Amino acid sequence: xxxxxxxxxxxxxxxxxxxxxxxxxxxxxxxxxxxxxxxxxxxxxxxxxxxxxxxxxxxxxxxxxxxxxxxxxxxxxxxxxxxxxxxxxxxxxxxxxxxxxxxxxxxxxxxxxxxxxxxxxxxxxxxxxxxxxxxxxxxxxxxxxxxxxxxxxxxxxxxxxxxxxxxxxxxxxxxxxxxxxxxxxxxxxxxxxxxxxxxxxxxxxxxxxxxxxxxxxxxxxxxxxxxxxxxxxxxxxxxxxxxxxxxxxxxxxxxxxxxxxxxxxxxxxxxxxxxxxxxxxxxxxxxxxxxxxxxxxxxxxxxxxxxxxxxxxxxxxxxxxxxxxxxxxxxxxxxxxxxxxxxxxxxxxxxxxxxxxxxxxxxxxxxxxxxxxxxxxxxxxxxxxxxxxxxxxxxxxxxxxxxxxxxxxxxxxxxxxxxxxxxxxxxxxxxxxxxxxxxxxxxxxxxxxxxxxxxxxxxxxxxxxxxxxxxxxxxxxxxxxxxxxxxxxxxxxxxxxxxxxxxxxxxxxxxxxxxxxxxxxxxxxxxxxxxxxxxxxxxxxxxxxxxxxxxxxxxxxxxxxxxxxxxxxxxxxxxxxxxxxxxxxxxxxxxxxxxxxxxxxxxxxxxxxxxxxxxxxxxxxxxx
Length: 624
What we know:
Elements lengths: L20 H7 L2 H17 L6 E6 L5 E5 L9 H7 L3 H18 L3 E5 L2 E7 L8 E8 L6 H12 L8 H12 L5 H19 L8 H15 L3 H7 L18 H7 L7 E7 L9 H18 L7 E5 L3 E6 L7 H23 L3 E5 L10 H17 L3 E3 H5 L6 H17 L2 H19 L3 H22 L4 H17 L3 H20 L4 H16 L7 H8 L3 H12 L3 H19 L4 H8 L4 H12 L3 H10 L2
Parallel strand pairs: 9-10
Antiparallel strand pairs: 1-2, 1-5, 3-4, 4-5, 6-8, 6-9, 7-8
């Protein structure tokens, strides 16, 4: 008997109604409904660890029990600083007051302490109203210098300054917090409502997966992209798989979460440049860069092939891809045009030029670490080669640097210091930095070790010309190299190395005896870092180890100007930066720059520049 093989199932003997989605959900076993709902909820918070989520149980008096729902993190938060600076009891009272308000309101309460926000939502299933969902800490507005500075004053009782490493860490912590807009807060309230219902329901009785997934795709994915996925795509850890590794493609939820429609092949990096010759205060630059990072990440959210994440505290990293099927030339042109669009956005929104580095394109689905590493290297070389956009392969494909060439460059730099010619030192330093970057393949620790060795070599040569006591020598060497040792990015290492070269150039070019010039150089550093403080000549002279007449004579010999004129010039330079880059009033700028009054600023500013602060600001604005 022949048996027929059916390639398709036979038709049913009677009509069968199609199974709807609601029916599928209804016939799921209780444990599966529980699991899928929990998985949907965890997908939202586990991919956004910047905002911890807790359940708080309150005894109605002063006892609180905290249960974390997300992934534990050791990242610094505002409360760490509050505890260190003795404000822990104030936060405790703040929590209790917020819980009282949330219980009374029977709904969402958002409050702030020291400028940082927290969210409290009562769980309706608690009959006595003493169980809450809590999310915090976060920001409700873009971080700005003014309120961060005021928050620091309230928290510590100290004035904010870039020379204070604790303040720098405080600002960096604040910039890492999520900024939740009104629309995001509304979505978070809905999400917490789902979470509260899930925790309050009988096991398996509630299936909210579809509602949570819809909220995630329409609100969170659009307004709060999942940056950890972009970070994993460019991760240096070879055992860290890309988000699309297991599927081999972009699934729908990956497309929504990252915001791209095709597998990325290329990494790009962007760094804004200073608007004027005068460098911006480091902390203010960090805050400005954070605004640019957030704006660019949101901007490319509408680009179907590009996603972004912050690059340290100075730039932005992008993963992207040109259209397939085009020639290499056309693909390069497309990438360049994309880079120029990013630069145009930064200039239009912030009035700043920027540089872009582009790595090599790799096969779709690959880890983009190598492309990203090349993009970062090309980014820093843009500064050395004075190019706005640089493809890594355009430069590194042609030039190879041998150790002998690197040593020749080091010798040229050392000889330039010996001849004490400022322009020659600058040219030799730029060439040396460029060759170190190429030779090291931008491996940060190799760059750091080369720069430190160069600094010690130069310092040794200067010391032989100007001998000094061992204690002073060791103190200066440690201070000279400390910032290079602490720098965390290639850009920071380059900047700190060049700053150290400037200090060595000052010491090298002076004809004073070694001990005197070292004390004077340390004093100049002190003046540059503390210009906003009250600086009296007798106090500074005593700090430098001179009598007032001797200090005045040595100071004039070394700098070519008097102590008062030097301090005035430093303060005016700072005022110029504030006039060009902030909306602060003249009175506020006078206070921030160390002048006794607005009148004192105007008089000093005109004496140094020949212009008034108002006229200078107008000119700076017209020139972008």
